[in-house]
Amino acid sequence: MTQIIKFDVGMSCGGCASAVKRILSKVDGVNDVETFVEQKKVIVKAEDGVSEDDLLQKLLKWSEASGKSVALSS
Questions:
Q1: If I label 2, which of 38, 42, 46, 48 is the partner at 20 to 30 A Cα–Cα?
Q2: pLDDT tens, 43-74?
Q3: Contacts of 43 (CB under 8 A, 6+ apart)
Q4: Domain count, the chain
Q5: Average pLDDT, whole number, for the chain?
Q6: Where are the alpha helices (DSSP H) in 5-68?
């Protein structure tokens, strides 16, 4: 099964989107990462068993370095 995990990420450019995509794509079980800069949304397609919290923690590390906001989307 594939699960969909959504994040609200304060991306302001293609560089931000590329960084987010690169970080999340390295996680085992992540099949696809779509970034939408204008909507400030990231959609991750991952295998069951991939933890939302693990992905969030990776994005929060990037957030600290970049100053961009990151949150799990409802």
A1: 38
A2: 999 999 999 999 999 999 999 999 999 999 97
A3: 4, 5, 6, 33, 34, 36
A4: 1
A5: 96
A6: 14-25, 52-66
Tokens of 47: 């295998």
Determine the residue type at 22: R
* CA–CA distances in Å: residue 52 to residues 12, 15, 38, 45, 68: 23, 23, 23, 11, 19
Average pLDDT over residues 30-50: 97
Take residue 3 and report the two structure tokens written for it. Answer: 């699960």
In angstroms, the CA 20 to CA 58 distance is 9
**CATH code at position 15:** 3.30.70.100
The domain containing residue 44 runs over which residues? 2-72
Characterise 67 by phi-psi region: left (phi > 0), alpha (psi -120 to 50), beta (else).
left
